[in-house]
Amino acid sequence: MNITMLGGKIHRATVTEANLNYVGSITIDSDLLDAANILEYEKVQVVNINNGERFETYTIRGEKGSKVICLNGAAARCAQANDKVIIMSYVSLTPDEAKEHKPNVVFVNDDNSIRDVFHYEKHGELF
């Protein structure tokens, strides 16, 4: 038996672009992907804080330092520039692995620069 756990998270990123005329996915600055321990082409769930939309897509590695968060293809219908989103990846672990697992939680500033990286998250705490 395996348990699905949060693997990595980018919290309250700002959408910089929505490109409907693209094959699909979400382009994310390489610095953010690395900090969250999310791989290129990895499946992610995206939650739009502004409108409540929740959807799944896969990642494309954006230029390092660009601070890009670009929704591509059909996902571009789920958000617009300046919306705040939470981007999450998940891992499948055995119960023993799950007990020791700590996700990478990346908190960003309004310009998508990294503010903090934690390996835990507590209810009610705003980092």
Comma- or semicolon-separated keywords:
Barwin-like endoglucanases; 46% strand; pyruvate; Aspartate 1-decarboxylase; 127 residues; single chain; cytoplasm; decarboxylase; 10% helix; globular; mainly beta; zymogen
Account of the protein in words:
With 127 residues, the protein is mainly beta. It has a single domain, classed as Barwin-like endoglucanases (Beta Barrel), CATH 2.40.40.20. Helices cover 10% and strands 46% of the residues. A hairpin with a 5-residue loop joins strand 8 (104-108) and strand 9 (114-118). It starts with a strand and ends in a 9-residue tail after the last strand.
Outline type: globular
CATH topology descriptor: Barwin-like endoglucanases
What is the multimeric organization of the chains shown?
single chain
Distance from N terminus to C terminus (CA atoms, Å) equals 34 Å
Query: How many DSSP helices?
Result: 2
Summarize the structure.
This protein is mainly beta.
Secondary structure blueprint with pairings:
Elements: E1 3-14, E2 17-19, E3 25-29, H1 30-36, E4 43-48, E5 54-62, E6 69-72, E7 84-93, H2 95-100, E8 104-108, E9 114-118
Parallel strand pairs: 1-8, 2-6, 3-5
Antiparallel strand pairs: 1-7, 3-6, 4-5, 4-7, 8-9
